[in-house]
């Protein structure tokens, strides 16, 4: 159990401890981590963002009348995003998940469902943030299979999923797993014909697709200029390159935006009015997002988008030269999914082999016939290492082929299906993980191929239960140095 020191520690000692703890973290710069982080490769941009963050750190976004700087900065940030994504008005949020939650709330409140709980219809490739929003907001989520070859949403299947209780349909631009843009115009037309709202999840692509179009690339229509699209989410801490905690949700109709707000006067204290899920919040992310956008500028974003897409295309060409590997779908954005066609070349082992060589490739589990694969998010800095990444992938693939499939203990997956997790406390679950070589919170970075292979053999509801227990065991460990391994499949684009 951690305890506070009786006397406060000196700043130098505290910062040294943070530095020590971070030594086990994945690097946030350089491009060898192909998920979670977005790097321009421009040190001056990151420096000005950090300074702006500190300038606004203690400004509280709870009451914009007390801190008018919040209003001024948010108007500029949201206005810049709306100007590139078809207009409308919007809200600055802490991330894609919060943007999506506000869009779902607005749809629920603006279009009361007939005859029961409201529903939203989402493609199978839609981000789990929609399921999270449904869980929190009392909205049922209807998952619709996607095209098994292109991995794009199927407008006819989406139309068939609509019921009198449907308040919103969803399309992705692009979907995070494969980097493909759904047929937004057709899905929005389906929604409009049914009198249903349509949200476009452009969390990962909203601030790269417009710049790719500016550069002459074919980008399918996806934003609020598309008839029938009523709201859109766009993360600035992804391809906007702002520090984490920066997203925007846009609404085509300002009355719909107001449905995202929350107000309460049901107590004797100050009247609460919130545009976001959070109440008190630092304006640091807002200041940093504004500074990042202004420092990069339109020309900078065009260059960064072009570099990221060129790096993605070089990776795709490199994959074609590696026996046994293939790219899933045809990416419209700099996100690439790589699967194996060779039973002796396991993608989870490949990820471990890459990790041992200083690279992080994000595992994605199989789902609804889509095979397990490795996800790559290419950013502005990736072009500088565009030749190194395919070479690292090829080297890790060859090592994985030599190592063979992960040694999953016989019967482990079947045993987990019958395991009563409620009978295990966190320590007991940690012991179970230890039996397959994983120590939550332990030093170093253990191989995760066995864990991911076992998870991949289980249905989604069991995966979820096990991952909840993994997270609980991780945080229940000792308060000293801890290193969580992000090599276990998790994370995603909307955060």
TrEMBL record:
It comes from Actinomadura viridis. It holds the Pfam family Pyridoxal_deC. The modification N6-(pyridoxal phosphate)lysine is found at residue 238. It comes from the Bacteria. One of its GO terms (molecular function) is aromatic-L-amino-acid decarboxylase activity. Gene3D superfamilies: Aspartate Aminotransferase, domain 1, Type I PLP-dependent aspartate aminotransferase-like (Major domain). Belongs to the group II decarboxylase family. Sphingosine-1-phosphate lyase subfamily. This is Glutamate/tyrosine decarboxylase-like PLP-dependent enzyme. InterPro entries: GrpII_AminoAcid_Decarb, PyrdxlP-dep_de-COase, PyrdxlP-dep_Trfase, PyrdxlP-dep_Trfase_major, PyrdxlP-dep_Trfase_small.
């Amino acid at each position: 159990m951690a305890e506070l020191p009786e006397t406060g520690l000196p700043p130098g000692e505290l910062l040294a401890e943070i530095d020590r703890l971070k030594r086990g973290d994945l690097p946030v710069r350089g491009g060898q981590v192909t998920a979670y982080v977005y790097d321009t490769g421009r040190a001056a941009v990151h420096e000005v963002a950090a300074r702006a963050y500190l300038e606004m750190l203690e400004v509280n976004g709870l009451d914009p009348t007390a801190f008018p700087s919040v209003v001024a900065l948010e108007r500029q940030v949201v206005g810049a995003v709306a100007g590139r994504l078809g207009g409308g008005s919007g809200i600055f949020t802490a991330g894609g998940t919060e943007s999506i939650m506000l869009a779902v709330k607005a749809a629920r409140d603006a279009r009361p469902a007939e005859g029961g709980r409201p529903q939203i219809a989402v493609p199978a490739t839609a981000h789990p943030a929609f399921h999270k929003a449904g869980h929190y907001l009392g909205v049922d989520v209807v998952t619709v299979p996607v095209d098994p070859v292109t991995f794009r949403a199927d407008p006819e299947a989406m139309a068939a999923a609509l019921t009198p209780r449907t308040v919103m349909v969803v399309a992705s631009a692009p979907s995070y797993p494969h980097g493909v843009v759904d047929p937004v115009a057709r899905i929005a037309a389906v929604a409009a014909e049914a009198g249903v709202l349509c949200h476009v999840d452009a969390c990962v692509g909203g601030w790269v697709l417009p710049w790719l179009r500016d550069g002459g690339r074919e980008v399918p229509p996806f934003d609020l200029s598309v008839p029938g699209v009523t709201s859109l989410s766009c993360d600035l801490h992804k391809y906007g390159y702002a520090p984490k905690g920066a997203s925007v949700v846009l609404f085509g109709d300002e009355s719909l935006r107001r449905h995202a707000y929350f107000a309460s006067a049901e107590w004797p204290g100050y009247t609460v009015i919130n545009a976001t899920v959070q109440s008190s919040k630092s304006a640091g992310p807002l200041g940093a997002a504004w500074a990042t956008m202004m420092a990069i500028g339109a020309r900078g974003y065009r260059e960064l988008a072009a570099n990221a897409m060129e790096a993605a295309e070089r990776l795709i060409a490199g994959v074609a030269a590696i026996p046994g590997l293939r790219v899933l779908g045809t990416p419209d954005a700099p996100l690439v999914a790589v699967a194996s066609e060779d039973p002796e070349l396991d993608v989870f082992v490949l990820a471990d082999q890459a990790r041992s060589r200083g690279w992080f490739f994000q595992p994605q589990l199989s789902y609804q016939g889509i095979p397990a694969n490795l996800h790559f998010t290419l950013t502005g800095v990736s072009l500088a290492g565009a030749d190194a990444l395919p070479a690292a992938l090829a080297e890790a693939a060859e090592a994985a082929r030599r190592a063979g499939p992960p040694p999953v203990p016989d019967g482990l997956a079947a045993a987990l299906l019958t395991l009563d997790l409620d009978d295990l406390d966190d320590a007991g679950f940690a012991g179970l993980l230890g039996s397959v070589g994983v120590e939550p919170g332990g030093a170093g970075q253990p191989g995760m191929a066995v864990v991911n292979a076992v998870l991949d053999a289980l249905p989604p509801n069991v995966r979820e239960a096990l991952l909840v227990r993994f997270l609980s065991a991780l945080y229940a460990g000792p308060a000293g140095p801890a290193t969580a391994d992000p090599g276990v499949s998790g994370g995603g684009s909307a955060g």
